[in-house]
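Support reply, case 0932

Customer input (verbatim):
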Amino acid sequence: MNKVFLAGAAIGLLAIAAAITLWHINSHEEEEPENLPPYDYADTASWHVKPAAPPPPVWQDGWATDVLLLASQTRRQPEDYAEALAAAGPVYAPRLRRADFADDAAAALTHYVERANQGRAFIIATSEPLPASLVPVINSDPMLRARFGGVLLLNGQTEAFGAGVHAGAVCSDRFKPSEACAETIDIRRESGSWVIAGEDPLEGPVLGGFKDWLEDSAPKLAPPLGDFEDIEVVEIRRPGQTD
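Our regenerated output:
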């Protein structure tokens, strides 16, 4: 009887230990120091994840999609999310202060648009409602808004946008004014890798058919003209004209 009881107790303790271990693997919550200064997104150290090399611009290889992970609180390491989201495209995951999420998210998006986007399509992944501070950034250029694919919601998040933000004011014409350009996805660890769960994880409302829509409906950014300092200016004189 005692042996049976002890064996049962041991099994119970092992089950509890396994559950605690699994919780730690699937949970990531770090305390944030107070009064953190703003991040400088020109500094690589201000990013959890960035592509090792710049992805090719749209005028070189055609339409492709980047993923911007904007989340100040996650249950897992940002690198784990990035591993899964890489199935959709190169991932950019800036460091964000929880107390200043709106300011930091806008600053990181602005830096990405001005320094890294190069006309590529992009989607945003987040575990919290996106703040109103992102709206003027996305709406700063109609071509930029056209290639904004929408929002991937993580950690069971159901609201894509925060208070005061209407989806119709930020989503592209790919979606009806009454539709939220968002879908909820589940990130899981399978066979030793972090993946987007599901049989066809890239065929949801946000990712499915996005490239085809871009080809049919979105204008491509033209290559830059280059540095005008490299252009030689030659003065044209009429016949017989002198200084």
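We compared this against your earlier run and they match. Two observations from our side: The CA atoms of residues 43 and 94 lie 10 Å apart. The first strand starts at residue 47 and ends at 49. Please reopen the case if you see a mismatch on your end.
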